[in-house]
Write a structure and sequence with these properties.
heterotrimer, A mainly alpha (about 290), B mainly alpha (about 280), C alpha+beta (about 325), A: about 290 residues, mainly alpha, two-stranded antiparallel sheet, globular, C: alpha+beta, Rossmann fold, OB fold (Dihydrolipoamide Acetyltransferase, E2P), 2 domains, about 30% strand
């Protein structure tokens, strides 16, 4: 509802953002698609040509792809489960009356603001290192053999580090949601004879469902493209034990200089992300109407 | 809650929450503590907690050897620059979508969000090649551009949710009072939206500061921000725990402080207004 | 001066025509009230005049000059919004001065006009406060102040009193009427409250579904409603409208009689039982289920009358005040 004049102005003011984003999306996307059907290696750039689906074949049949695919899934699902379960428990705890609530909140939220390279490096060297890490000291202190986390359980270690980074996000959002729960509803349930567990099951959890959906979907977007943590800690290894899709594409294109196969991998990553995205857009789109 | 909580229960809550809070915070605390130790104390077994000879030597060493401030400035330019540029583009866009919504406004918003879901790695190759060919590789302004575009959807969305809370009648009143479009945005909308714009800015600086895909892949020595600087500690300097800690502390301190101020907006910004 | 003329103005949102072709002229200095049920298009009509919406077709003439294409800021109109639309980040003084600042008026003149308006509106003590620190009535006055400093051709009011509580509303109603008497500027006022329309207007425009049902002075509308809709809309309590055989006796499809024109008498042509008697002190509203009538009749009796639920009563209408309507709803 407005005048033609303001609508024209509105269109003009919307244009820069739209055009820029459109360019940002379409140009590289088309180029990725283009390269994905080309032979193009940065070491031998003169030998270019169309290769049909060869790059896709190579990428998809590469044993590393299967590993990377599975690793990506484990990484995403593992982190989601850890952060949501712990996040709900923490959020409920933080919602209780206590002394110094504000400070505890600050402590809990802090890891989210630590840049990925720092958290990866600190965990790798100061905690997980089998010689000088704190965990090694702790193991020795209890008379156990120090465990070399990053070589023995590289993926699990990365899941742990990433979960530490994202737990604050989940907690904060779930806490916000819990705090918006109408306390009269809780009291009504209590009057109706619901015990604490029943109240959690029938009141709190349904109330949190929307926030949980949002956490799942948004974290998934970010978790699909975990990169720095892997680069800094394990370089995807040993072998491909901790390589995810993002890291694999990086290896193909910028380490193996195979632009063609890297692009094919990029297209695959886009398709997979889109499948997730469709669900996210639906969930958020619903909230737009509310 | 109107009901009285027993002091005992409150004490238990407090103890439990503080214990967990400290546990989660511990890696950061440990890093900060270690940054004030000598290298020998840093790897002492059993670990030394608070009672050691505090030294700030590591900080000066980090600065001298690797020129910390160069990276710091790159981070500042990249995060602040991309945020300001993003706001400049996003404020008019959010204005038009919030106050002159059309039939396609919702679609445009959703589409903008969808660009955010394009995995970075999917376009890594072309962006890398474009940057290589245009001289933007290892150039802070190149990163400013990339991060502006990456975060533009979030900025637009956050502003949009804030703007929508401003009643349209006030802007109409300004129009009736003789304000042109520019005066309407400058004198009425922007001052009213200052809190929203500020939190958008804060959150976006944080996101840009910590962005660690493009900053790692598109920079080398010259324009590297702190993310890349820290990554370079991966080996073998990583074994010098005290210096690693000092560098890490310096890299995260500014943003940690900003982050604590923005925690409320964080929820709203990162969930695109779905959770407030 | 402040004349406003609409010629064949229409407005559509997409395929939906909310204002069918409409003609209206508003004289200089007139207090015109647009009244009608919600969704009747009265606010849209006001916004068309303001220029906040484009007309789909037709022409708007303000002060003798075509204004259809003129942006709102240059139509010389001032508007008071339902939500007051005060700028929360500005002091009262700055709020009132804003249109003057936009007009690049010099500072001394701005101050003079703001002080003058503040004096008229009893806002002098509040000039340095923010809108958030004011009561509803004070905010309303600031909104009016912001409108009057511009010395506009005409004022537009969009349901300005609907956010105030009942007592305040009566007070503001009188203040606005008095302001109109003082300024003698054209005012166009939108409301859904027919009491506001009756008490304030020089001329009432009754709207339904974008159509003008009747234009006239409050008493015209009261005494000579042009159709059933206006008859039922104007007046409180609403007019008793009776269809069927009773109407046929008067050669009409529908007959209307206002509650104040029916008396409770010992004899009388209509009889019934009392449903509810509402004792207001000054008046008693008796709701009677008439025998042989589908409708419940409302009767207004001055003072107090001792009737209760279930009492049998007889009613006498004042036939001089009977309204007759044909089957097309129009007055006969």
């Amino acid at each position: 509802m407005a005048t033609a004049h303001s609508r024209t102005a509105a269109r003009l003011m919307l244009a820069p953002a739209t055009v820029l984003l459109l360019a940002w999306m379409l140009i590289p996307l088309c180029m990725t698609l283009y390269y994905s059907f080309r032979r193009y290696r940065l070491l031998t750039p003169e030998r270019q040509g169309w290769v049909g689906f060869r790059n896709y074949e190579n990428f998809l049949t590469n044993p590393a792809f299967r590993d990377a695919f599975v690793n990506t899934l484990i990484l995403v699902v593992g982190v989601l489960i850890i952060t949501i379960v712990l996040g709900i428990l923490l959020a409920i705890l933080l919602d209780q009356p206590m002394f110094g609530q504000g400070i505890v909140r600050i402590l809990v939220i802090a890891p989210f603001f630590v840049m990925p390279t720092v958290s990866a490096l600190v965990w790798k060297n100061m905690f997980l290192n089998p010689v000088n890490g704190l965990f090694a000291y702790a193991a020795k202190g209890m008379g156990l053999q120090p465990y070399d986390f990053l070589s023995q359980a590289p993926l699990a270690s990365i899941v742990g580090i990433v979960a530490w980074q994202w737990l604050p996000f989940a907690t904060l959002i779930l806490l916000t949601a819990i705090q918006s729960l109408d306390s009269e509803q809780m009291e009504a349930a209590e009057m109706d004879g619901a015990g604490p567990l029943a109240r959690f099951r029938f009141i709190t959890l349904p109330h949190l469902s929307r926030a949980i959906t949002v956490v799942v979907l948004i974290q998934t977007i970010f978790l699909l493209s975990i990169f720095a943590e892997i680069l800094v800690t394990t370089n995807g290894g040993p072998g491909t034990a901790s390589t995810n899709l993002t890291y694999l594409v990086y290896v193909e294109s910028l380490l193996n200089y195979d632009v063609g196969e890297g692009s094919a991998g990029g297209v695959v990553a886009i398709i997979l992300a889109n499948i997730v995205a469709i669900f996210l857009m639906r969930a958020i789109g619903k909230n737009l109407d509310a | 809650m109107s009901r009285a909580i027993t002091p005992r229960r409150k004490a238990v809550n407090t103890a439990l929450a503080w214990a967990l809070g400290l546990l989660i915070f511990f890696p950061i605390l440990w890093t900060v503590l270690t940054s004030f130790k000598t290298e020998a104390t840093a790897i002492a077994d059993p670990p030394v907690w608070f009672f050691f000879d505090w030294t700030t030597e590591n900080y000066s060493v980090v600065q001298e050897r690797s020129g910390y401030f160069r990276f710091f400035w790159n981070s500042v330019i990249i995060s602040v620059g991309s945020t300001l540029l993003g706001l400049l583009i996003a404020i008019p866009a959010a204005w038009s979508m919030a106050f002159v919504p059309g039939k396609r406004t919702k679609d445009i918003l959703m589409w903008m969000l969808s660009t955010k879901m394009l995995p970075a790695v999917g376009v890594l190759v072309p962006i890398y090649l474009i940057f290589r060919d245009t001289g933007l590789l290892d150039n802070v302004w190149g990163l400013v551009i990339v991060l502006t575009l990456i975060n533009l959807p979030i900025i637009v969305w956050m502003l949009y949710t804030y703007f929508r809370e401003i009643p349209g009648e006030i802007l109409e009143a300004a129009r009736m009072d003789g304000a042109g479009l520019r005066a309407e945005i400058v004198h009425v909308l922007t001052p009213m939206a200052v809190p929203g714009i500020a939190s958008t800015m804060l959150l976006n600086i944080i996101l840009a500061w910590n962005e660690a895909f493009w900053t790692l892949n598109l920079t080398a020595a010259k324009s590297a921000p702190l993310t890349a600087f820290i990554a370079s500690y991966s080996s073998p300097e990583g074994l010098f725990y005290a210096k690693l800690s000092a560098a890490s502390t310096m890299a995260i301190a500014p943003i940690l402080i900003m982050g604590w101020f923005s925690q409320k907006q964080l929820v709203r910004g990162l969930t695109f207004g779905a959770v407030k | 001066m402040g004349t406003i003329t609409l010629n064949q103005v229409t407005k559509s949102f997409g395929d939906v025509q909310v204002i069918p072709p409409l003609d209206l002229s508003i004289e200089d200095g007139e207090f015109v009230v647009f009244v009608g049920p919600s969704g009747c298009g009265k606010s849209t009509l006001l916004r068309l005049i303001a220029g906040l919406e484009d007309v789909t077709s037709g022409e708007i003439v303000i002060d003798g000059r075509p204004a259809t294409e003129v942006p709102p800021a240059r139509r010389g109109l001032a508007m008071v919004f339902q939500s007051y639309a005060l700028y929360p980040h500005m002091s009262v003084r700055k709020n009132i001065a804003f249109p003057l600042r936009m007009a690049k008026m010099d500072k001394a003149e701005q101050d003079r006009r703001v002080d003058h308006a503040a004096r008229i509106l009893n806002l002098t003590d509040y000039l340095d406060r923010r809108p958030g620190q004011l009561s509803g009535g004070q905010r309303q006055r600031v909104a009016i102040g912001r409108a009057i400093v511009r010395e506009p051709q005409a004022f537009l009011f969009d349901e300005p009193l609907s956010n105030l509580d009942a007592a305040l509303r009566v007070g503001m109603r009188m203040e606005i009427s008095e302001l109109h008497a003082q300024l003698a500027t054209t005012m166009v006022y939108v409301t859904h409250d027919q009491v506001e329309a009756m008490t304030m207007a020089d001329k009432i425009v009754v709207l339904r579904a974008g159509h003008i049902e009747q234009v006239g002075t409050p008493l015209d509308l009261y005494h000579q409603p042009r159709n059933v809709f206006v008859a039922g809309f104007i007046g409180s309590p609403t007019m008793n409208l009776i269809e069927g055989p009773e109407a046929a006796k008067h050669d009409a499809h529908t007959i209307g009689i206002r509650p104040e024109h029916v008396a409770v008498t010992d004899d009388g042509p209509w009889q019934g039982t009392v449903g509810v008697a509402e004792h207001l002190g000054s008046d008693t509203f008796v709701h009677v289920h008439g025998t042989g009538l589908a409708e419940t009749l409302t009767v207004r009796v001055p003072g107090d009358i001792a009737v209760r639920h279930g009492d049998a009563v007889r009613l006498t209408p004042d036939l001089a005040c009977l309204h007759r309507f044909g089957d097309d709803g129009l007055r006969l």
